[in-house]
Predict the structure of Shikimate dehydrogenase (NADP(+)).
Amino acid sequence: MTQHFIVIGNPIAHSKSPEIHTLFGAQAGLDICYQRQYCPDDAASFTAVVEAFFHGGGMGANVTVPFKQVAYECCAARGGLSEHAKVAGAVNTLLLDKALLAKGVSPVEALYGDNTDGQGLINHIKRLGWPLNGARVAIIGAGGAARGVVLPLIEAGIETLTIANRTVSKAEILVDELSTASEKINQHTIQTYATAALSGDFDIIINATSIGLSGETLPLADALNCQYAYDMMYGRELPFLQHFAARGAQTSNGYGMLIGQAALSFERWTGRAIDVAQATETLQAHSFKN
Ligand code: NDP
């Protein structure tokens, strides 16, 4: 029987998720149908779309901009949230809590939210062979993407974490909120800086800003160095990566993170593990270019 999945967003036409999950389905030998779902940008419409989909037998959904926080609220009021979703304050994966379904709860009331974005990044960095255990890590950016990776980075055993942002007050607020949300994070001292004031030597620097969309470049200090530079964006030339590549760093864009978070969603829904390296190779060769 065909299993149905959707990705809900606005806009949604650009989403690569259907290609990625269709490939995963083929790799796992499952009959799946994964479609883009446009939704008007308001909470009531989002809830209506989700309820109709899961009442109609849907198995799982991804959530993208601008609905990750709305999805969080939706699940908090129903079947619950994973620790990663709670700390991120955002949901990118909707599934049904099987234990609640077994008790006779309706699909809508069994709606459970997870967030696989951060772990998708960690898994990609591990596939790249970059050492995380004991690493000195800096994140540039203090928005939703940065928020989602802090707990997975700490769980991966990093030594120090620094967060820099154009608006330094937002980085400070983020650290306060994360420290309140998670004891694991609270046990770490996280330093904050304005982006232009960030300097020194790091093992890994992660660009979690959306600056790549604007064509502007980040103001990076001359005395800022790293061995590995990661940009969460993908699909275009990224000045952030060019800057550190010219200084001898290994670099990667966020394409592998995109595949990685999708693989984790797929595994949550179907219980089937994905060979991410093989899927990435196939997608790069056929469906879309890096
Ligand atoms: P948000 O809008 O929540 O945050 C944007 C961040 O970028 C803020 O820290 C903001 O700083 C900073 N920023 C924006 N413009 C500039 C600029 N001109 N100069 C300096 N800083 C700037 O976005 P998200 O956190 O949701 O997403 C960030 C990036 O991560 C996006 O490019 C997104 O595509 C990517 N991403 C990739 C994923 C993947 O799978 N590869 C998954 C999730 C996200 P300030 O606070 O000062 O405004």
